[in-house]
Automatic annotation (TrEMBL), chain A:
Annotated family: Belongs to the phosphatase 2A regulatory subunit B family.
GO cellular component: protein phosphatase type 2A complex
Entry keyword Repeat: yes
UniProt GO MF annotations: protein phosphatase regulator activity
The keyword Repeat is annotated on this UniProt entry: yes
Role, per record: The B regulatory subunit may modulate substrate selectivity and catalytic activity, and may also direct the localization of the catalytic enzyme to a particular subcellular compartment.
InterPro entries referenced in this protein's UniProt entry, alphabetically: PP2A_PR55 (IPR000009), WD40/YVTN_repeat-like_dom_sf (IPR015943), WD40_repeat_dom_sf (IPR036322), WD40_rpt (IPR001680)
Name this polypeptide is given: Serine/threonine-protein phosphatase 2A 55 kDa regulatory subunit B
SMART domains: WD40
Entries under PANTHER family matching the protein: PROTEIN PHOSPHATASE PP2A REGULATORY SUBUNIT B
Sorted UniProt keywords: Repeat, WD repeat
Pfam families: WD40
Automatic annotation (TrEMBL), chain B:
Keywords: Repeat
A single MF term (Gene Ontology): protein phosphatase regulator activity
Name of the featured protein: Phosphatase PP2A regulatory subunit A/Splicing factor 3B subunit 1-like HEAT repeat domain-containing protein
Entry keyword Mitochondrion: no
Family per record: Belongs to the phosphatase 2A regulatory subunit A family.
């Protein structure tokens, strides 16, 4: 793979689709806020988890003309390009709010991470996790059938008829789930009873329906909150990581897991760092990377030892040890790491920058991209309102030459490797994005600032400090935390509040 | 027609239930498929039921598993062996189910059916199916295919055999690691059917390929393949082809692969013969015993005895024993524990002198280990120890260890040692036991943890069985009598429990003269729980005691309890009275 392959031609990012857009004036529902996004390996499906424990699956639709009217197509652009488009496929309630009675702890239903497993047959397999429990879901798509005609058939004896109309009885069950075809399902029930009296049925396909079922639950293995899960390239194991430990599971076995990393000190007062993110190498089943709050990336070879806490290689930015302030340590904390598909590079995100690492160079990143340098001056303020602890995701394009991450004001920042800082795109994830293709994020007039902020997740106490500093050039309450890059196409799915925006180039 | 309908009606219900929403009903119906098939007759089973089942593969895993199980024995219902091929259709569809347990069962059923099919049918139906599966779009189908080659290979004509070998080769290089794993773990079975010439060439080159797979999980399955293939090859070929692979594996980068080697190595020794074992495998094993990774050392330590049995004493003393010495002070308690559980088995190999000189110090140091698991593992193998070093030497070092374990902080450890007490008693004999351990047994009756008190009572019973009633009369009963006045009611309850267990062993006379008064006394306790437990014990004493005693002593006491203010006491007293009546009636 070449890092410079497609970076020469300037990439023009365009809006593609939006799901779950808010109507003007509609309040942002906390429950609807998207908390995890992930494309499957081939990019045919997209899974989105939200704060209310739901996982929504979108499916790539190849026949885009059918879904979009001509006017919509024109609106998009003059020439219909062949970028992936997605349609809603199904959703399921993955997690419910729970209560841990032993510790008097409420367990939120919020989905912290979703990951796709290799699809063994027509069905899709998805791992989803909240703070404590990981679940394996199976989503199976099936043809929906509709009765077109009913003709009495004297030649069919009763048991034959029973055998003949088999496959569709189970379908009625599904339709009632989706609530989509109630009329038909009523009709079918009627027909069922008729059919046993010797009628045969003409059945036509009317579309697809997906059924989700929880296959396994991997629970009771984490004392702290799970923030990452990652599936292994061997197709049989996955890891789950919380603040201090990483556990290794076999997908088939839900009552047993192995602890492979444990950084919990005997005395919690000696705690110097926490694990912030963990991911398996895309190719080598024995390689594992995890990031820490001190800004280190640990590379572990699972072949060396059953316990991987020691003898890890550490990627660490030596340059960042220059000037130190109270905030240096906080903003050094890595919020997300992603392997590039080639497995030779790792992208990491800390509060102010995006860093690209070559695994062979442990002492410094090969590239540093500044995301919102203008915030450096405002760190005390960001600390006071906790914004400094926001955890932004990052993602790498399939060819490994473009990188994206989010910022405040729902800004999506896309960087390209190679030709320097010119190749920076900033898009505001909203219905009518006025693209700004330079670093200068022009100060925008703030929308009704107070009500806007009150909607955020932060304590009302901080409102004063906000309104007092009107020159803040970005809207801290709307932040683009979660995003994912399509594995093969230049396409980014990102979450702004409760809306899912898709951009392509 | 009407009559026919009547007989078919239950069948129609069963068929209907195959589609029911309730999983349990579908499951029941699947379980009775043979009934349905019999009612439908062979032809309609073939033409209607089986096609129906073939499309019914979108069900819960449990139902599919049941279906696969039923199909296994379905040949008679479709019209015998010549029609067996119709059964392949539903099973083929199940081969790509995602649940491993279902697929495994399907493959098992297919193998069972395939082994009964006529050669012609195998070629016409079974082989094309395997080829379809092996080329399947979904990797689950390809996984299933790997387990079927050994059924068909022998029946295939020469040309087809070549094709099958090449398909298997492809499966071993599949881009999905899951398929490669399945191909590797089934390689031994397949290889057993392949002609020797091809085994040496084709299969071994396939195998060589998988031993270099970059996925650890594939390589570690290949370790098992080494043993399987090694047994098929002639010793000379085995040394030439397999030995280098084993030696490589024992130095694999991945500790999981080395772990597998440590577990399997003694089997491989048999395959390669004594001389290569001495020159190549002993050094490999010694390396594994000194591996960096504790998990590998655990596996290696656990096989020390088995490995030594293959070697002669000289080799074992020279090469293995020094490692064992190191392991006995290993930094990982699990390694020491694994060693402790097998180390005594080495004694017969080493012979008496070497055992006393070299093994005994190791053994004694393990017996003083700081972790209770290690000590327990030694004690559990006490009979073996006793044979080798004799009781006198043993008792000196054993006793402190036992006493310490008996008072261990963790009740599970105490429980474990209690369970070994009867074994100790039988090995050590009455005298030693009386001196040292008798007091401990009584002490456990007053443990803070119920499980320990319960186990202690059971222990007394087993001791009484071991040493006989006379001994128990002297050593157990007096102390029990004494303890029955303990101020704490839970301890008094334990004594009642012990009495109910001891009474059958002691025989009617002692039970009547010594134990019964105690129970009667307990029935007048101030705690209701004691009273109704006394009633329960009396109920259990009825068959043991003389009828006159029952009438004279027990019944009045129970009648009195039957009027107790506490409802539970009344209930159990009445239960006991009822069973007296029943005994009376029957006699």
């Amino acid at each position: 793979m070449s890092l410079h392959s497609s970076s020469r031609a300037p990439i023009d990012w365009r809006f593609s689709q939006v799901f779950g857009e808010r109507a003007p004036g509609e309040e942002l529902q906390d429950a609807d806020i998207i908390s995890a996004i992930e494309f499957d390996k081939r990019g045919d499906h997209l899974a989105v988890g939200d704060r209310s424990g739901r996982v929504v699956i979108f499916k790539r639709s190849y026949a885009s003309n059918e879904l979009y009217s001509q006017s919509q197509l024109e609106q998009l652009d003059s020439t219909p390009t062949l970028h992936p488009e997605y349609r809603y496929m199904t959703e399921f309630q993955s997690h419910e709010p729970e209560f841990d009675y032993l510790r008097s702890l409420e367990i939120e239903e919020k989905i912290n991470s979703v990951r796709w497993c290799a699809a063994p047959n027509g069905a899709l397999f998805i791992l989803s996790t909240n703070d404590k429990t990981i679940k394996l879901w199976k989503v199976k798509e099936r043809k929906l059938k509709k009765v077109n005609a009913l003709c009495p058939d004297p030649h069919v004896s009763s048991e034959n008829a029973l055998l003949a109309e088999r496959s569709f009885v189970s379908e009625t069950e599904e339709t009632s789930i989706t609530n989509g075809y109630q009329a038909e399902s009523g009709e079918k029930v009627a027909n069922q009873s008729l059919s046993s009296q010797g009628y045969s049925l003409e059945i036509a396909n009317i579309g697809y329906d997906a059924r989700s079922s929880c296959q396994r639950t991997y629970a009771h293995a984490h004392d702290f909150n799970i923030h990452s899960i990652s599936t292994n390239s061997d197709g049989e194991t996955f890891i789950s990581a919380d603040d201090l430990r990483i556990n290794l599971w076999n997908l088939q076995i839900s009552n047993q897991c192995f602890n492979i990393v444990d950084i919990k000190p005997a005395n919690m007062e000696d705690l110097t760092e926490v694990i912030t993110s963990a991911e398996f190498h895309p190719v080598h089943c024995n390689m594992l990377a995890y990031s820490s709050s001190r800004g280190f990336i640990y590379l572990v070879d699972m072949r060396q030892s059953a316990l991987c806490d020691h003898n890890a290689r550490i990627l660490q930015d030596d340059d960042s040890h220059g000037f130190k302030s109270f905030f240096t340590e906080i903003i050094a904390s890595i919020s997300d790491i992603k392997f590039a598909a080639d497995g030779l590079h790792i992208l990491s995100r800390d509060y102010l920058s995006l860093k690209l690492w070559d695994l062979r160079n442990e002492s410094k990143p090969i590239k540093v991209y500044k995301i919102h340098e203008h915030l450096r001056a405002k760190l005390p303020e960001l600390y006071n309102n906790d914004a400094i602890f926001d955890k932004f995701d990052c993602c790498v394009s399939g060819d490994g030459s473009h990188f994206a991450t989010g910022s405040y004001s729902n800004l999506l920042r896309v960087f390209s490797d190679g030709s320097g800082s010119k190749e920076v795109f900033t898009i505001e994830a909203s219905k009518n994005p006025n693209r700004k293709s330079l670093l200068t994020a022009a100060p925008r007039a703030r929308r009704t600032s107070l009500s806007n902020l009150a909607r955020g997740f932060y304590r009302q106490v901080h409102e004063n400090s906000f309104s007092g500093s009107n020159d803040t050039s970005c809207d801290l309450s709307s932040k683009l935390l979660h995003l994912a890059w399509h594995p093969t196409a230049n396409m980014i799915a990102c979450a702004a509040g409760n809306s899912l925006f898709m951009y392509y180039a | 027609m009407a009559a026919l309908d009547e007989t078919l009606y239950p069948i129609a219900v069963l068929i209907d239930e195959l589609k029911n929403e309730d999983m349990q009903l579908r499951l029941n119906s699947i379980r009775r498929l043979s009934t349905i098939a019999r009612a439908l007759g062979e032809e309609r089973t073939r033409k209607e039921l089986i096609p129906f089942l073939s499309e019914n593969n979108d069900d819960d895993d449990e139902v599919l598993l049941a279906l696969a199980e039923e199909m296994e024995a379905f040949i008679p219902y479709v019209g015998g062996v010549e029609h067996a091929h119709v059964l392949l259709m539903p099973l083929e569809a199940l081969c790509s189910v995602e649940e491993t347990s279902v697929r495994d069962k399907v493959v098992e059923s297919l193998c069972r059916i395939g082994s009964q099919m006529r050669e012609m049918d195998l070629v016409n139906w079974f082989i094309p199916m395997v080829k379809r599966l092996a080329a399947g779009e979904w990797f689950t189908a390809r996984i299933s295919a790997c387990g079927l080659f050994h059924i068909i290979y022998s029946s295939a004509p020469e040309m087809l055999k070549m094709e099958l070998r090449s398909i298997y080769n492809q499966l071993c290089q599949d881009h999905m690691p899951m398929v490669r794993r399945s191909a590797v773990s089934n390689l031994g079975k397949f290889a057993a059917k392949v002609e020797y010439a091809h085994l040496k060439d084709d299969v071994m080159s396939i195998f060589k390929g998988v031993t270099q797979d970059d996925q650890d999980s594939v390589r570690l399955l290949a370790v098992e393949g080494c043993a399987a293939l090694g047994k098929l090859l002639e010793p000379q070929d085995c040394v030439e082809r397999i030995l280098p692979i084993i030696v490589n594996f024992s130095q694999d980068k991945s500790w999981r692969v080395r772990y597998m080697v440590a577990n399997q190595l003694y089997e491989l020794c048999e395959a390669v013969g004594p001389e290569p074992t001495r020159t190549d495998l002993v050094p490999a094993y010694v390396r594994l015993l000194r591996d960096n990774e504790a998990e590998v050392r655990i596996a290696a330590a656990g096989k020390v005895t088995k490995f030594c049995h293959i070697l002669d004493a000289q080799l074992a003393i020279e090469h293995i024993l020094p490692c064992v010495k190191e392991l006995s002070s290993d930094s990982s308690q699990h390694v020491r524990s694994a060693l402790a559980s097998v180390i005594m088995g080495m004694a017969p190999v080493l012979g008496k002198d070497a055992t006393i000189e070299q093994l005994l110090p190791i053994f004694l140091s393990l017996l003083k280990d700081e972790f209770p698991d290690v000590r327990l593992n030694i004690i559990s193998k006490l009979d073996e120890v006793n044979q080798v070093i004799g009781i006198d030497l043993l008792s000196q070092s054993l006793l402190p260890a036992i006493v310490e374990l008996a008072e261990d902080r963790h009740w599970r450890v105490r429980l474990a040692i209690i369970e070994y007490i009867p074994l100790l008693a039988s090995q050590l004999g009455v005298r030693f036991f009386d001196d040292k351990l008798g007091a401990l047994c009584m002490q456990w009756l007053q443990d803070k943890v119920y499980s320990i008190r319960d186990a202690a009572a059971n222990n007394l019973k087993r001791l009484a069985e071991e040493f006989g009633p006379d001994w128990a009369m002297q050593h157990i009963i007096p102390q029990i009598l004494e303890m029955s006045n303990n101020p704490h009611y839970l301890y008094r309850m334990t004594i009642l429990h012990a009495i109910s267990l001891l009474a059958p062993v002691m025989g009617s006379e002692i039970a009547c003269s010594k134990l019964l008064p105690l129970v009667i006394n307990a029935s007048k306790d101030r705690v209701p729980n004691i009273k109704f437990n006394a009633a329960k014990v009396m109920q259990s004493l009825i068959p043991i005691l003389d009828q006159s005693v029952v009438e004279k002593t027990i019944r009045p006491c129970l009648v009195e309890l039957g009027e107790d203010p506490d409802v539970d006491v009344r209930y159990f007293a009445n239960q006991a009275i009822l069973s007296i009546d029943r005994v009376m009636m029957s006699s």
